[in-house]
Amino acid sequence: MTVDFPKSLWAATAPERPLSAPLAGIEETDVAVIGAGFTGLSAAIEARKRGHAVTVVEGKAAGWGASGRNNGQVIPILTSAEPDVWVSRYGEAGKRMVRLIGNSGDVLFDLVREFDMQAEAEQNGWFQPAHSPGRVKLSQKRVEAWQRHGFPAELKDAKACADLLGTEFWYGGMFNPTGGHINPLALAREMARVAEHLGAVIHEDSPVVSYERVGSEWVIKTAQGALKARALILATNAYTGELAPRLAPRIARSVVPVLSWQMATAPLGDNLRQKILPGRQAVSDTRGDLRFFRYDARNRLITGGAVMGSFDVANRVRKKAAKSLAEAFPELGVPEMTHVWSGYIGMNWDRFPRVHKLGPDGWAWVGCNGRGVALGTSLGRELARAATGQPEDELALPVTEPHPFPVHGLIRRFAPTYLAWLKRQDHKEINL
């Protein structure tokens, strides 16, 4: 029994994990989790730590979806969901959400350290360099906002930025020392190992076809079995409608799955390694057409990008990302990419993640918007606390109703053209 993974660098380097047995027959548990990515596995670990029986049902394998395909950057802020807006929109729940986001880097790395997870984890900070002088003002505004809420954001000027990156290509920016990077597939597999060690049951190769509330329990069905549970956590995010389109259609249509392309260079030699990004931080800049990169444990630069259209996408995005690296780091030249892969991220219209109640003791969240590594891990812990009895008014769960996109299929088809608008915005200077 095997599940094919995309031919990514992570699939080539993460420790192997034998698949657990599919769900067969009828089982019972206290907390059922659908999806074995960062959210689902974090929830399983927390539920077991709180003494509750938990069963995870995964359609493919642990880390097969977005959790095992991303760049591996641990980023303790969101794309454009600023902290003060959370508070103005959701009040006390928004304040708790700001604390969850701001602490999300530490939550992930503390979990890695607690269980000695072998995930190439480096908590050496995350940096968002500004790609124009006006964006430095945006960086300053963001730094001040996060500092008001008690988090250690720092503003780097042009010289400090150049020292940190090894190039004068950017103008300054925001630095957060609690961020960093991991091997995401290794982390997912290690989280699965820890969950099982704590007593959680994981069933892989078991696509869930439906769930419903029957009396006082949830009934989760697969092709070969059923799971009955008091509480349910739906942890499928961008892949909610991919394996079983009818699983949760309103939630699936409330986000647009967008392909995110990742790639890796060959390992850099010591001379270049010491010049380019000498502190090994994770980096993603202020562009909408994002430039992002970090090292892995073998000194490869892990980067990525996006292009419009569907023709020869992998080759085009490879060339674009290589050119972007060469533009920022001329001494690197145009690097050859040894691995290129992709996976979905869940985007929504305002880039605010959404938390939903499915019914009594039923929870879900969607809309990572490219920030799912740290956020998914922290929200998984929070959803587990809700599912095991902690009062909702103590948790960072600003609940809303799903709002599906009209003509979702059409929007999904044309979502890549959004990149053209982002590029235009990147060339416009902003005044704050």
From TrEMBL:
Record GO terms (molecular function): oxidoreductase activity
Superkingdom, taxonomy of origin: Bacteria
Domain FAD dependent oxidoreductase: 30-385
Record keywords: Oxidoreductase
A single Gene Ontology CC term: cytoplasm
UniProt-listed Pfam families: DAO (PF01266)
InterPro entries listed in its UniProt record: FAD-dep_OxRdtase (IPR006076), FAD/NAD-bd_sf (IPR036188)
PANTHER family: FAD DEPENDENT OXIDOREDUCTASE DOMAIN-CONTAINING PROTEIN, SARCOSINE DEHYDROGENASE-RELATED
Protein name: Glycine/D-amino acid oxidase
Organism for this UniProt entry: Celeribacter neptunius
Lineage per the UniProt record: Bacteria, Pseudomonadati, Pseudomonadota, Alphaproteobacteria, Rhodobacterales
